[in-house]
Amino acid sequence: MMKRAAPLYLCLIWLLAACSSTQPAADAPSPAPTAEAAVQSTSTAVATTAAVATAMPTNTPAATAAVTAIVTTTPPPSPTATPTTAAAQIVSGRTDEGVFFLGDPNAPVTMIDYSDFL
Amino acid sequence: MLGTEPQVIESFVNSGQVKLVFWPVLNHGNPSVYATLTADCVGAQDPDLFWQIHEDLFENQGALWRATRDDFVAFAVAAGADQAQFETCYDDGAALARVMALDATRRERGVFSQPVFDINGRILGGAQPFPIFAEALQAALETSTP
Questions:
Q1: What ipTM goes with this model?
Q2: Sheet of strand B18-24: strand arrangement
Q3: Residue A110 DSSP SS3
Q4: Min distance B22 CA to chain A CA atoms (Å)
Q5: CB–CB of A99 and B102 under 8 A?
Q6: Exposure of A106 in the CB half-sphere (CA atoms within 13 A)
Q7: Which of 30-89 (B) contact A at CB < 8 A?
């Protein structure tokens, strides 16, 4: 009986050994995410949000294109985009007489420029 | 007046001390009339655009003598105006009448040449260097009632 079962035991041992060798060690460190992986992760998050908001399946080409557009078209903030205080105060308009002015309508001094474009 | 205008704006207009007014003078026939009509119709859409095309027209002064309607439309669109609105204004006659009335008013005020500057009643004739404007504006500020 034991002699007939020996090959079976050997097969079981071999199978157990083979299976255990393909599993990673439970405490092995996972690789650090690369930049590409981070972008993919962000894209997935945006895609999920978009899918919830619009009920669009995330695996369609349109959804993928939308995600790509969201990820790639966001411009970085420009350091010169904020207008200066002085520039923000300039007012332009038209007087009751029908001519155009620039500056504070109630400025203490008015300078009228009578000019021809030619 | 383009030469010293940026300095006047930077030194006196931006600070709220001076209001700068452009009053059209039509002393050179149809080119003057249609350049001014163009500026008026662009400004009717947005006064900020008036000051843009005011600069554009002065910078291209030499081209205005032979400018056609299409050229003025191109100026207007380049300045940021809506083309259809501009063309309606340019053609309907009301803006043309307004421009001609402004020109008549300046003649009634005794202004017959250009440029002429009226700074709170003090008249300066001809293109002057910035220090002359600065002195006149400063004097007007000192005598103006707060």
A1: 0.96
A2: A92-94, A100-102, B18-24, A109-115, B116-119, B122-125
A3: strand
A4: 5
A5: yes
A6: 2
A7: 31-32, 35-36, 39, 43, 47-48, 50-51, 54, 57-58, 61, 64-65
Would the CB atoms of A98 and B98 count as touching at under 8 Å? yes
Buried b (16+ CB within 10 A) or exposed e, B101-112: ebbeebeeeebe
CA–CA gap between residue B140 and residue B146 (Å, rounded): 12
Do the bridges between strand A109-115 and strand A92-94 make them parallel or antiparallel, or are there none, so unpaired? unpaired
The string of pLDDT tens digits covering residues B57-103 is 999 999 999 999 999 999 999 999 999 999 999 999 999 999 999 99
Question: Within 10 A of B67 (CB to CB), how many other CB atoms are there?
Answer: 19
In the numeric block, the tokens 């105006």 are attached to: B81
Its pTM stands at 0.66
Contact criterion met (CB below 8 Å) for B67 and B34: yes
Q: What would the two tokens of residue A73 be?
A: 């078209």
Residues of A in contact with B61 (CB under 8 A): 117-118
Beta bridge partners of A111: B20, B119
CB B102 within 8 A of CB A99: yes
Q: Return the DSSP state at A82.
A: S
